[in-house]
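Box 3.1. Reading complex inputs
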Amino acid sequence: DAGVIQSPRHEVTEMGQEVTLRCKPISGHDYLFWYRQTMMRGLELLIYFNNNVPIDDSGMPEDRFSAKMPNASFSTLKIQPSEPRDSAVYFCASGRQWTSREPQYFGPGTRLLVL
Amino acid sequence: AQTVTQSQPEMSVQEAETVTLSCTYDTSESDYYLFWYKQPPSRQMILVIRQEAYKQQNATENRFSVNFQKAAKSFSLKISDSQLGDAAMYFCAYRSASGGATNKLIFGTGTLLAVQP
């Protein structure tokens, strides 16, 4: 398996622009997670899905952030409008059902810079 | 709520030596999983080792092993025969096994490991 795939790997945009981050989870995984990593706040869970349904979005910072999972093999995280404080590395991770001892597997991350 | 604490922001080890990274956690649950992830400069999060709370035997993966002390809520990572490629940020993480809306990882703040040649 190719692992979790994220695109783009790097994104530079200007404040106010819309940003869309994409993720393809590992086939057969029924959980998908979006994390944000910054120096100040470390790794934060933004939202996670189970069987394409959002389960916990309490980590989404504000209404400018939205996430969708239209099918089992694709998810997006959208920021509209973007702000400089959104600059971070965004990770997507996937995993099997909660009863499994298997961990979450992370994608390579998208490094976002908002100018 | 569960918390994970890594009290060593930075550690250093000589190549070929052994180093231990500390992790403690707080939980009222009896069934859970613990993980160590490695994040090299590439930023990729890589699973190093995992431990089920119900297992008394400490997990081992090649040069990596853990010292799991359930009563003390401690989960340290030992790296033997350290190599230059081990240099990275190491994160300890906790995950409940109780199901429901708890299938999320709770991370510590990380320990930055430097390996000296």
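In summary: The mean pLDDT of chain A is 92.
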